[in-house]
Specification:
The complex is a heterodimer of chains A (267) and B (438). By secondary structure, chain A is mainly α. Chain A has helices spanning 2-27, 35-46, 49-52, 63-189, 226-239, 248-255, and strands at residues 202-209, 213-221, 257-262. Chain B has two domains: 35-162, TolB, N-terminal domain (Rossmann fold, 3-Layer(aba) Sandwich), CATH 3.40.50.10070; 171-433, Neuraminidase, CATH 2.120.10.30. Helix content of chain B is 12%, strand content 44%. The chains are: A mainly alpha (267), B mainly beta (438).
Chain lengths: 267, 438
């Protein structure tokens, strides 16, 4: 489509170019820059000389005075007529002017009215927008406030956590240290019976006194295999004293009673 | 975004509160050291000396299991006769976990007139030293064989403490070869206690005896004998000695194995050309050929459920273990490690495959877990052969070379203990562990 059209455009372009060239070659020597200026002046000059074109006409000698008188009267009349005409013209002009003014005024009034209406509408729209904006702003402020509050809450929580964790992490470190120590000790002393299988699980609850001496052992969850249960009890009793933190508070909180979960994974 | 975090924090807080209440520690591994146990010499209320030291037999049994370490008698601080006389502290000091005490009373004295041996009554107790309390006590009303009674006590204690049935009253069957002064070889089919003691000869022959196997009830045995110059499969009653010839086909008649229900006998015959596996119905004696392959198929062993057999075949180019469905005859290969795997047997729970495995030109007893991809050499010696698994699946007996002699070795299937059975004169081959006999 584009392809089929392009030759047409090309041809048109070529024609246009040739025409421009021709015109140029015609007008170029006549200083085309001046011409449009000249034209305008000519146009404005055409109008006024037309009424003045009716010029007085010279006549015969005797009748010359009469004629002149007549002519004077005529002239006068003519003048009068002219004046009348002028007056009329003026009147008409005034009338026209008045009509025009009135029209203009009407137009202005209408315009003003329209403008007023527009203004009114604009104002209404503006108000509406203002209200909407206000609402949006309020909403965003509320949102921001909520965010700020939540952020604050988060920070506070973090701070609390940080403060707690200062103590807590120290305690946790001690706990995990002894947790591993207990685990290792019990693993060393655990002799699993040949009937032990992966998937079996016994849970022991053991009570210790400060220093780690085991004072009671009880099976809280049986594996269902008596030999397995016996072997886990035996592992703890064989260990006898388990490694526990010397800090009395930590011992009380975490180690006085512990649970040991026996769950062989390598069988 | 904020709410879930809050909830998470709350949740974590609850968890930590919970954790604070109860520290939980997971134990997932064990040192698995042998459990220390003390078997106090049984108190004999009668006169004179007993023929058997029961406590000594029990201690030896427990030690051989690999799971227990009996306390030396010399280390005992006291020898209580019953739980009432036990000072737990004494045993705790010695690091003992369990304690066995017992007494033997005379029920009937030996009578010369009626030639009846003396009979005894036994009672024994098992105690938990750490928990400081008795676990159980038993009585044997009347028994003549003190050694058998001792093995029975071992079984009872072992089962109580391990949850697994003991194998101390089971038997071992094997072929012994003794070279006579004349240079002639004498082959004997023998049955001994599980500790290798008290061997009894079932059959003696100047021709080779091979591939002995137990019937599922332990009352009969089957074997291959070359008596008459050609191999034949025989079945023999262990108590009456009565025997029958089961097969005598031309060519190979070998490797019999009773099905777990005792109804069928798997065997290797070459009557149709090359060695194939057949199943014989023991009532009708009808034969059914199970394998069809131009390669050698041999050494069939039933799986414990009786649904399939494992066997050795060189159909893949080298001897490997295959499994064949007893009904459909569908074959799958089980072993892929190394270029020689033979004489396979599955464990009672069906989890393990025990076999002879060649590695670096040496033959070891190896175990392959059929569920997980685990493989382990149980022995490190070089000419180990003919593994046979104990009925509780805990031990493997095998033949090996020791000081240029063929002897029997035993190894725990978890590798925890290994020992040689006392060497007899001559050579021992092809040991087979009996089923439970009582």
């Amino acid at each position: 489509m584009k392809n089929s059209l392009s030759p047409f455009f090309k041809a048109a372009l070529l024609h246009a170019f040739v025409i421009v060239l021709l015109v140029y070659s015609w007008t170029a020597p006549q200083e085309p820059l001046v011409k449009p200026k000249f034209n305008t002046i000519q146009a404005s000059l055409v109008a006024p000389p037309k009424p003045a074109a009716v010029a007085p006409k010279p006549n015969v000698d005797k009748k010359r005075q009469q004629e002149a008188k007549k002519r004077k009267a005529q002239e006068k009349e003519k003048q009068k007529k002219l004046q009348e005409k002028k007056r009329q013209q003026k009147l008409a002009k005034e009338k026209a002017e008045k009509t025009r003014r009135l029209a203009k005024e009407e137009k202005r009034r209408k315009e003003q009215e329209a403008k007023k209406q527009l203004e009114k509408e604009r104002k209404a729209a503006k108000e509406k927008k203002r209200k909407a904006d206000q609402k949006a702003e309020l909403e965003s402020m509320r949102k921001k406030e909520a965010e700020r509050l939540s952020e604050l809450e988060k920070l506070r929580a973090q701070e609390t956590q940080r403060l707690e964790s200062l103590e807590y992490s120290e305690e946790q470190k001690i706990i995990s240290q002894y947790r591993v120590a207990i685990q290792q000790q019990v693993q060393r002393t655990w002799s699993r019976p040949p009937s032990a299988r992966k998937g079996m699980q016994s849970v022991l609850k053991i009570a210790m006194i400060p220093g780690g001496e085991v004072v009671s052992v009880s099976v809280v969850e049986s594996s269902g295999n008596a030999a397995f249960d016996r072997s886990v009890e035996q592992a703890v009793r064989r260990a006898g004293i388990l490694p526990v933190p010397p800090d009395a508070a930590i011992f009380d909180r975490h180690f006085r009673i512990i649970e040991l979960i026996f769950r062989p994974e390598d069988l | 975004m904020y709410l879930p975090k809050m909830m998470m924090a709350l949740f974590l807080m609850q968890v930590s509160v919970f954790a604070q209440a109860q520290l939980r520690i997971e134990i997932t591994q064990g040192g698995d050291d042998p459990t220390p146990i003390a078997i106090v010499p049984f108190n004999w209320s009668g006169a004179g000396l007993l023929k058997e030291d029961v406590a000594n037999v029990v201690a030896a049994d427990m030690g051989r299991s690999g799971q227990f370490r009996p306390l030396e008698r010399a280390d005992m601080l006291s020898q209580p006769r019953s739980s009432k006389e036990v000072f737990y502290r004494d045993w705790r000091v010695l690091g003992v976990d369990y304690l066995v005490v017992g007494r033997i009373d005379s029920v009937n004295l030996a009578s010369v007139q009626t030639s009846s041996p003396a009979s005894y009554g036994l009672s024994y107790e098992l105690m938990d030293v750490r928990a400081q309390k008795p676990i159980a006590s038993w009585k044997i009303a009347e028994v003549k064989d003190l050694r058998a009674a001792a093995h029975h006590i071992s079984d009872t204690i072992y089962q109580k403490l391990t949850g697994l049935r003991g194998i101390f009253s089971t038997k071992l069957m094997y072929v012994s070869v003794v070279q006579q002064g004349s240079g002639e070889k004498v082959y004997k089919l023998e049955v001994a206690d599980a500790d290798g003691q008290r061997p009894r000869t079932l059959l003696e022959s100047s021709e080779p005896i091979m591939s002995p196997v137990w019937s599922p009830d332990g009352k009969r045995v089957a074997y291959v004998s070359f008596a008459g110059g050609r191999p034949a499969i025989y079945i023999q009653n262990r108590f009456t000695g009565k025997r029958i010839k089961l097969t005598g086909f031309p060519g190979i008649n070998g490797a019999p194995d009773w099905s777990p229900d005792g109804q069928k006998m798997a065997m290797v015959l070459s009557k149709d050309g090359n060695p194939e596996i057949y199943i014989m119905d023991m009532k009708t004696r009808a034969l059914r050929r199970l394998t069809h392959h131009y390669a050698i198929d041999t050494e069939p062993r039933w799986t414990k459920d009786g649904a399939a057999l494992v066997f050795t075949s060189n159909r893949g180019g080298s001897p490997q273990i295959y499994k064949v469905d007893a009904l459909s005859g569908r074959v799958v290969r089980l072993t892929f490690r190394g270029s020689y795997n033979a004489r396979a047997q599955t464990s009672p729970d069906g989890h393990d495959l025990v076999m002879v495995h060649r590695e670096n030109g040496q033959f070891h007893i190896s175990v392959q877990n059929l569920q997980r991809d685990l493989f382990a050499n149980l022995t490190k010696t070089s000419l180990d052969e003919s593994p046979s698994i104990s009925p509780n699946g805990s031990m493997v007996i095998y033949a090996t070379q020791h000081k240029n002699m063929g002897v029997l070795g035993a190894v725990a299937i978890n590798g925890s203990i290994k020992y040689l059975l006392p060497a007899r004169h001559g050579e021992v081959r092809e040991p087979v562990w009996s089923p439970y006999l009582n």
